[in-house]
Amino acid sequence: MSFFAFALIWFLETAGRFLPLPCRTGLRAVGDPGPDAPVFLTGNYHLTVARLRRALRGLNCWLLVADSHGINIWCAAAGGHFTDHSVVSALKTSGIEQRVSHRRVVLPQLAAAGIRARRVTERSGWQCAWGPVEAGDIPEYLRLEGNPDSRLRQVRFPWNRRLEMALAWAFPLGLLTASILLFFAPALIPSFLGWVAAASLGVFIGFPLYAGLLPQAVALRRSDRRRRRRGLLIAWGALAATLVLSAFLLFPAERSCLLAQGGFVLLLLLLLTVDLPGSTPLLGSAFHAEKHCRVVLQNSLCRGSHDCVRVCPRCCFTPRPGGVVLNRTERCIRCGACIVQCENDALCLRDATGRIISAQQVRKRKLGLSGRRNVNSGG
Amino acid sequence: MLGFLFMKLLELHPARYDAGLRLLTRGNLEKTYDRLTAYFREGDRVLDLGCGTGSLALRAAARGAWVTGIDVNPRMLAVTRERLALEGLADRVELREMGVAELDREAAESFDVVVSGLCLSELSRAEVAYALVQARRILKPGGLLCVADEVRPETFLGRLLQILLRLPLVIVILLSARRPTRPLSGLPGRVEELGFRLRTCRRNGLGSFMELTAEKGGPR
Questions:
Q1: Cβ <8 Å between B4 and A271
Q2: Which of A260, A303, A351, B1 reaches 20 to 30 Å from A52, CA-CA?
Q3: pLDDT of chain B along its 220 residues, tens only?
């Protein structure tokens, strides 16, 4: 795929990011893979597969696309759409077993929130390894002979990912704005669309500038949280006022409806930031029922399998001989991957009241896409 | 926020599944299932592929068959379990959370009937092919394969009509099954290629839905 074709796909599919975009499932050969070539498995979200094919150029390997209902891997795995069954089915029905002499498959690390590697092995006979978080790190992963270091295991939120989030928000918001204004004030459409673009870009590109101020960024007492929220609201109001004032000075033609413009920008900023932490991979969503839960390590049960170390996308664990230390809890986003994978059930969740949610319960709960965990919906 | 609202809308409730399907098929599905289960005999061992909310499994158990129902969705299985308990048929049906890919672990020639209602059209082509091969392997000689599912109409006009009719239903399908289905094509031919003998094969008026029964060679 040429750079331009990929850029077009990237733009269109990022703009429609909130919709599932499936592609064909099944086996694809990359380069000229032989019976010893590595097997990489992924979900059937179209953009992910396009991205992987670019990342795998120049390598000889098998790419196995399993059914994730056209949803990206992390959301699909946490939401119960990309499950052990999808993986087992891809391994056994795609014909890969006739193509390779080994039984080792590399799964995407972010799928660890929903796919139990051990169960896949039990049900299919395939050994599972966790690949890097970013498709682009696969060559580096192979160079490290399948032992990714913490750099490859972490989710990051660099400028290009922030640009993606800005586009993903700006497109539907712009569409909504334009379709409403079409009936009331079509003349305002260009300037309002400009505001949508500016606000989305500003909020996401500028994220590192104010991330430390977000109440979710650090463990805070409730009263501190409220104060920070009020502080942020004032900050957004000030930002909206500054933007509109500068437009007032720069574009005299728009002066007539200053109040409407200001109100619109403030509304935009609030819409964009109402679940800002949930729009980043670095902070847990404010809508999740589990936002006040903590991951708890029961040292007496830990046998040092280090599965948690391998799957934690925030590198909260430090391995030690025969066990682990959970020493960076402030980074935890409660994705649940460590709890799902631990073979000894040494990890669990504790909610704000001190009640324990066991590993078994966490495995059964799948994250509803609106942030509600549905009990009884997973293996 | 928009995404949040949209996703909220799509949240799946298995309870909605049955109502959605009844709406989609205007009651015809129930009749189809009644016709298919009429072939079952008392004491038959029946495997229900993708048993979902248990419509077929319940009917089969009520006719005195011993049923094994498999499905990958534990929430669907929970609904089935409740319905079975209500009807007092829980001891006749064994439910397992597994997909068709794991059928290779079942013993060969261990079932009298393999039945599947609206499951194959939710699978990929590779999975359908795999499921049919495994169905043949685990059926006893003379065993029955019963399929009721969406198929691709054979005529161009039928296909056009199917597309037009499905357009407004896409939302309902997404809400009930959470995913688009892939109508099967060339099912009777594929079944015969595998060495089954077709017994009955009926399509609806539009040619978009098929009820098929086929027999594995040998005395039953």
A1: no
A2: B1
A3: 333 333 444 444 555 566 666 656 667 888 899 999 999 999 999 999 999 889 999 999 999 999 999 999 888 899 899 999 999 999 999 999 999 999 999 999 999 999 999 899 889 989 999 999 999 999 999 999 999 998 888 888 888 887 887 776 666 555 544 556 778 888 999 999 999 999 999 888 777 889 999 999 876 5
- Contact flag B102-A379 (C-beta cutoff 8 Å): no
Angstrom distance (rounded) from CA B200 to CA B219:
18
Residue A137 lies in a domain: yes
* pLDDT tens figures, A324-352: 999 888 888 888 999 999 999 999 998 88
CATH classification at residue A46: 3.40.50.11600
Domains defined for chain B, CATH in brackets: 2-216 (3.40.50.150)
Residues A99 and A232 in one domain: no
What is A211-233 written as a DSSP string?
Answer: GGGSTTTS---HHHHHHHHHHHH
- The verdict on a CB contact (< 8 Å) between A25 and B98 is no
CB within 8 Å: A370 and B99? no
**Are A18 and A138 part of one and the same domain?**
yes
Residue A206 belongs to domain spanning: 159-279
Give tens-digit pLDDT for B25-79. 667 888 899 999 999 999 999 999 999 889 999 999 999 999 999 999 888 899 8
Q: Are residues A167 and A303 in the same domain?
A: no
Tell me, yes or no, whether A120 lies in a domain. yes
Residue B159 in contact with partner chain A when CB distance is under 8 A: no
Q: Which residues on chain B are in Cβ contact (under 8 Å) with A70?
A: 179
- Tell me, yes or no, whether A285 lies in a domain: no
Contacts of B102 in chain A (CB under 8 A): 88, 92, 123
Flag if A18 and B6 touch (Cβ within 8 Å): yes
Single residue among A153, A174, A190 that ends a domain in this structure: A153
| Interchain CB distance below 8 Å, A275 and B1 | yes
**Mutate which: A370, A372, A373, A374, vs B, most B CBs within 10 A:** A370
Nearest to A69 among B4, B104, B179 (CB): B179
* pTM score, whole prediction: 0.86
Residue A41 sits in the same domain as residue A123: yes
Using a CB cutoff of 8 Å and minimum separation of 24, what contacts does A366-369 make?
A366/A78, A366/A79, A366/A80, A366/A114, A367/A78, A367/A79, A367/A80, A367/A288, A368/A79, A368/B7, A368/B11, A369/A75, A369/A79, A369/B7, A369/B8, A369/B10, A369/B11
Together in a domain, A85 and A28: yes
What span, in angstroms and rounded, lies between the C-alpha atoms of A126 and A116? 12
Q: How many domains does chain A have?
A: 3
Which residues in chain B (119-148) have CB-CB distances under 8 A to chain A? 124, 126-127, 129-130
Contact across the interface for A93 and B102, Cβ inside 8 Å? no
Residues A272 and A298 in one domain: no
Residue A2 confidence (pLDDT): 83
Instruction: Determine the pLDDT at residue B5.
Output: 39
Q: Which of A279, A309, A343 is the last residue of a domain?
A: A279
Assess if residue A144 is contained within a domain.
Answer: yes
Question: In angstroms, what separates the C-alpha of A194 from chain B's closest C-alpha?
Answer: 19
pLDDT at A351: 84
Placement of tokens 């830990």 in the chain: A302
Cβ neighbors of A257 (< 8 A, separation 6 or more) are: A188
CATH number of the domain to which A304 belongs: 3.30.70.20
ipTM of model: 0.84
Which residues have C-beta within 8 Å of that of residue A273, sequence separation ≥ 6? A203, A232, A236
